[in-house]
Structure formats: C-alpha cells, structure tokens
C-alpha cells in the first residue's frame, strides 16, 4: 500500500467517525487544507450531498475513481455495486430515487459504457428523477484521440451529448470540481423538476492532485424550499372560471404525487371528477367516488369520458405528453384550463389557460382557501355530472370484470389455452396488493394493461415508467431490493421482449442479494406495437418472433434463482406466486399469455394518438379544439 492510499484511508476513517467532512475538520481530526485528488474530492462532495450508493461498471476510464471508492467503502462511508450492464445501473439508480428517495450515482467508463448509461438516463429525465451519472471522458492535453471517445475532432464531445438530456459538467481542471458539484446539486435536488446530472471525468484529471485543497470549500447541497405563487389575480381568475363551469375534470401527473388530500378537497368544492395520470395510481384512492380511471390514448371508458366532456380542465403537475391527453385532442369541450405547474413552459402548455406557477401542493391549498371564502362548498347530493361519471366508472369496472372472469383463451401460437395477459396481470397485481409488495411495470403491453388494471388506495408501491416507456427498467429495478436501506418485496411485471433487452438481473440479483420476483409474461410478440400495426394498417409486421425460449430453464441456469413456471390457469399461477414470495432471494416466473384478436385478450383503447396514418385526423382535431 502506497502513502497516497494510506492518506485516503485515514481521511475516510476520520470522516466516517465524525459523520461528515465538515465535522471531521472542525473537530481537528483532519486538516482543513490537504493534497487531494480530483476523484477523491468528488467522492467527498457527493458524500456531503448524502450520496453514499454507487453502482455501475468500471473500465479503463474510471480506475482512479474505483480506487478511491474502494478506500471509502472499506471505511464504511459508502457502498459500490458492480453490475453487468450500464443501462441496468441507470434504471436501478432511477428507481432507487423514485421509490425509496435515495440518491445514487451511476459510474461507468468512457465510450460504449457511458452511452449505455446515458440511454438509460432517459427514464430519469422524463420522470423528473434526480440521479448522478459519472462517466470517464477524453483527456484534456490533446495528445491524440482516446480509445472509445466520441470519434470526432471536437472539444467536449461527451459534454455536448449529455447536455441534450439534461445538465452536465466536464471537470477539465481539478479546481472546477466545486462548481460542478454546485451545479449538480441544483439539478439532482431541484425542487421544481429534478433530473440526471452528468459529471464527466477526463482520464488525466482524475488523479490530478489539488495541493492545499480547502476541504470546507467542497459544497454542501442548498436547501431549496418549494415556492408558492403570490399571484392572487390568477386565483381570482381560476375561481371565476370554476363558478361558470358545469363539468369540471381534474387531471394530474407526476408533479402532484404529494397532493392527494388537496386534489380530493378541491374536487369536492368544484364538484369535479378526477383522472389520474398513468403512473399516478393511488395518489387519490381508487375507491373515491370522484376518482375515475386513467385517461389518455390508451385510457379507459370513464377516464376518457371525464376528459372529453369537461368544460373546465384543471391540470396539476403534468407535462401533457402525447398519450396523456390524446395528442392534444382529449379536451374536446373545455373552454378553459387552470394549470398548476412548477415550470412556466408546462403551466402554459395549453391555450386559454390560467397558469399557476410554483409548488402544486402549496398553490392548491391557497386556491382552496380562496374558493371557500368565495362560497364554494361540497355538495350534499350527487350532481348530474358526478352521476354520469359514476355510471361510466361502473361500466369500466364491468368491462374489466368480464375479462378477468374469462381468463383463458385458445392461442394458436401455443397450440392450447393459456391465460390472457389482463387476467394474469390482475392476478399478480392482486397478490402483490395482499402482500403489501411493490409493483414495477415494464414498458409495452404489460405496462398498458397494468395501468388500466391498477386500483391502488395509496400511492408509493405501483411504479410505471410512462415518461420514457423504457423496456427493461422494471426488471433491472428489482435490484433496488438489494440496495435500498429498507427494501420491500417487489414484483417486476415484464414482457418477454423487455426482459431480453436487459436480462442481467438474473445474474446481478443473485450476486447482490435481491429479494423479489420477476414475472415474464411471454407472448413471443411486441403485442402493444403489433396491436397498433393491426389497428392502423390491418397488418402485423416484424413484431413477432418464432424462437421458443424456455425462460424457466434460462433463469434456472443461474445458481440461486428460484425459477418457476406459472402454468396455464389462475390457480397454477397463484401457486407459483406463493412459492416465489416464500423464497428468500430472486424468483423468476414464466407465464405464457394470449396474443390475438379476441377482445377478451386485452383491455381496449379509448383515445387518439398522433402516430402513423392517424396524424392528419388527430392534428385537425387538435387545431379545431384550439387548446
């Protein structure tokens, strides 16, 4: 062990002993001014921000960082998990923050590994999840092209790339680290719309030493209180619109995750019905009489009706992604919009809008008080607006019930009767509810059926990446059960296509002690896209495969995986779920599911979408509505 490593380990022990850098300095256990490498200062800065979990794949572009992390892990300051795929690492870090509120850093080398992680960062960027990404970068002295750099003669190639996804900083000189850390904290811990922050480490600056580095210059994260709107005029205008309205619908997205009580109270005051975004199940209890089901391009009978018929739309914490509002065509009768959002660009998304910019919870509370002062009160008897929406919700429940009560369909692909995907997902979802387990849904038909099925009474255990719809996220995120401080048992709902895109969980889950269950709903098809092709052109093209994969055997080849077959009926599938839940480790259940034209094999499509041959019609409708 060289003297430099001994110094790093001594600092690490002192920092752990004192609970932080500042405390260690102020108590005299370490000098304030020391010779510290760039990567060690980076680790100290991230520790200051509460980042103690690192995961990823090392390469020649990150060995210096790896050495520092090893010293600090030995002292108990942090933990590093080595994985087999950088995209998997990005997905796991995203879910660790989303589900558990724990900020992690993804570590990769330069080149393809960084690009894998960068691709995975799309989910964090789309869903407003603050995570750190640390990539190796090309050297700064220009001695020649580096292996695996972006092969173009341009300064800051990786920096230009990452800035298209969010914010990044190339630590071109050691002393620039302090600014990088401040900018990173402002992004990762942003109270309005956080996202990924990319720290780029040129290979020659990682080990560069800052002589007499001031350890107290290493920044700590700022405390940013949520901001409320002081624009009373906006609340008065919104109140006037509410007084004129006869059919009010509240639609909310990810920015309203903490606003359940306010949304319910507002709905009572306005005689409104509530439509949750696809990933927001449970923010408002599904059993609430004013809560309809999901609305949008996939949507539901009741959710889309509530949006189509509203004369006033209240939008809370949403970007209005295309499928969220049927590519701008869902508010067919809305004369105006009241939009609560932290970002002006989102608050002003629609025409004829009263924009209320700032923290949604604070601003909803302020508007509720204004409404009460203006004489608004909950109605004692159901209005015609509420009655017709309740009828639509009953219709939707019967629609789903019919499919769940007819769970088995003949599928020529399998040459026998198998479970329909809605019935299989519903059985697994209900099982997870009974166990208090988390539910992660992968992109595709599994995700679409999942958010139509979900009927949560509380928020925080059902997660669906509708922001990016990144195939493989749910399977990869099962690793969170090994990383989180207080993990809960988790079921990952994944299609066969999503699993095969990022299958490393069956290896890394065992390696690191994951406890959860991956359910592979196997229809040998990209069913969501196949269905779209059939609806648009009457032809399914290159969205099916003919390779028969025994996923039970594949997963069972990994020692430590509890590989199970889900069978062909609900009873067999439930038995497999029980066996999985009882296993202290990672289980994988494979269940064949139906894919075909029988209407009982799916949960329907109830909205428009600006894709393919539908574009002309949808765009005309969007401009007719004029929102």
What's the layout of helices and strands?
Elements: H1 3-18, H2 21-26, E1 33-37, H3 38-48, E2 53-56, H4 63-74, E3 79-82, H5 86-100, E4 104-107, H6 112-127, E5 132-137, H7 157-162, E6 167-170, H8 177-188, E7 197-202, E8 209-214, H9 232-244, E9 248-252, H10 260-270, E10 273-276, H11 301-309, E11 312-316, E12 336-341, H12 344-347, E13 353-357, H13 360-373, H14 384-404, E14 408-411, E15 416-419, H15 421-435, E16 438-441, H16 445-453, E17 462-464, H17 473-477, H18 480-483, E18 490-495, H19 496-501, H20 505-512, E19 516-522, H21 527-537, H22 551-556, E20 562-565, H23 570-582, E21 586-592, H24 615-625
Parallel strand pairs: 2-3, 2-4, 4-5, 5-7, 6-7, 9-10, 9-11, 11-12, 12-13, 16-17, 16-18, 18-19, 19-21, 20-21
Antiparallel strand pairs: 1-8, 14-15
Short description:
The protein is an alpha/beta fold and 627 residues long. It has 24 helices and 21 strands.
Task: Describe what you observe in this structure.
- This protein is α/β, with parallel strands linked by helices.
- It has three domains: 31-217, 3-Layer(aba) Sandwich (Rossmann fold), CATH 3.40.50; 232-395, Rossmann fold, CATH 3.40.50; 406-596, Thiamin diphosphate (ThDP)-binding fold, Pyr/PP domains (Rossmann fold).
- It is 41% helix and 16% strand.
- It is built from 24 helices and 21 strands.
- The strands form five sheets. A six-stranded parallel beta sheet has the order 3-2-4-5-7-6, with helices on both faces. Strands 17-16-18-19-21-20 form a six-stranded parallel beta sheet, with helices on both faces. Strands 10-9-11-12-13 form a five-stranded parallel beta sheet, with helices on both faces.
- Helix 10 links the parallel strand 9 and strand 10.
- It starts with a helix and ends with a helix.
């Amino acid at each position: 062990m060289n003297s430099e490593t001994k110094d790093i380990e001594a600092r690490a022990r002192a920092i752990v002993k004192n609970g932080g850098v500042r405390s260690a300095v102020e108590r005299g256990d370490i000098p304030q001014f020391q010779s510290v490498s760039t990567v060690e200062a980076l680790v100290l800065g991230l520790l200051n921000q509460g980042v103690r979990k690192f995961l990823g794949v090392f390469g020649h572009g990150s060995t210096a960082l790896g050495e520092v992390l090893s010293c600090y892990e030995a002292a108990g300051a942090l933990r590093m998990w080595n994985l087999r795929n950088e995209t998997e690492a990005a997905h796991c870090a995203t879910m660790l923050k989303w589900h558990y509120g724990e900020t992690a850093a993804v570590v990769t080398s330069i080149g393809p590994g960084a690009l894998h992680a960068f691709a995975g960062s799309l989910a964090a960027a789309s869903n407003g999840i603050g995570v750190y990404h640390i990539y190796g970068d090309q050297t700064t002295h220009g001695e020649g092209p580096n292996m695996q750099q972006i092969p173009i003669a341009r300064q800051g190639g990786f920096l230009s790339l990452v800035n298209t996804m969010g914010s990044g900083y190339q630590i071109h000189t050691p002393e620039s680290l302090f600014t990088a850390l401040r900018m990173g904290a402002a992004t990762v811990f942003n109270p309005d719309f956080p996202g990924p922050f990319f720290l780029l480490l040129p290979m020659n600056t990682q080990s560069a030493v800052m002589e007499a580095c001031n350890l107290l210059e290493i920044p700590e994260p700022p405390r940013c209180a949520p901001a409320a709107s002081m624009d009373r005029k906006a609340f008065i205008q919104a109140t006037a619109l509410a007084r004129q309205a006869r059919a009010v619908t509240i639609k909310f997205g990810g920015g309203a995750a903490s606003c359940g009580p306010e949304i319910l109270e507002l709905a009572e005051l306005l005689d409104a019905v509530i439509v949750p975004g696809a990933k927001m199940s449970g923010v408002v209890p599904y059993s609430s009489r004013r809560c309809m089901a999901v609305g949008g391009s996939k949507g539901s009978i009741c959710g889309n009706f509530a949006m189509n018929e509203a004369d006033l739309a209240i939008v809370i914490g949403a970007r209005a992604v295309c499928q969220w509002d049927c590519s701008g065509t869902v508010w067919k009768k809305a004369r105006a919009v009241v939009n609560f959002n932290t970002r002006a660009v989102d608050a002003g998304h629609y025409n004829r809008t009263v924009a209320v910019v700032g923290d949604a919870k604070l601003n909803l509370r302020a508007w509720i008080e204004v409404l009460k002062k203006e004489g608004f009160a909950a109605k004692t008897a159901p209005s015609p607006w509420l009655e017709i929406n309740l009828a639509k919700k009953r219709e939707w429940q019967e629609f789903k019930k019919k499919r769940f009560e007819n769970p088995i369909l003949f599928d020529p692909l399998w040459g026998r009767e198998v479970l329909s995907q809605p019935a299989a997902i519903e059985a697994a979802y209900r099982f997870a509810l009974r166990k208090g387990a988390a539910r992660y849904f992968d992109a595709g038909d599994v995700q679409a059926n999942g958010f139509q099925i979900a009927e949560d009474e509380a928020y925080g255990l059902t997660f669906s990446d509708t922001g990016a719809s990144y195939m493989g996220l749910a399977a990869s995120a099962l690793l969170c059960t090994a990383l989180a401080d207080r993990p809960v048992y988790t079921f990952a709902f994944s299609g066969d296509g999503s699993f095969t895109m990022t299958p490393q969980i069956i290896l890394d889950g065992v390696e690191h002690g994951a406890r959860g269950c991956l359910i592979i709903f196997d229809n040998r098809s990209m069913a969501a896209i196949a269905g779209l092709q059939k609806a648009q052109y009457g032809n399914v093209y290159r969205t099916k495969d003919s390779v028969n994969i025994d996923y039970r055997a594949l997963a069972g080849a990994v020692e430590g995986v509890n590989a199970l077959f889900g069978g062909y009926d609900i009873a067999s599938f439930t038995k497999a779920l029980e066996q999985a839940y009882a296993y202290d480790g990672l289980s994988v259940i494979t269940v064949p599911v139906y894919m075909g034209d029988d209407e009982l094999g799916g949960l329907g499509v109830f909205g428009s979408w600006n894709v393919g041959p539908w574009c002309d019609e949808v765009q005309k409708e969007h401009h007719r509505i004029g929102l």
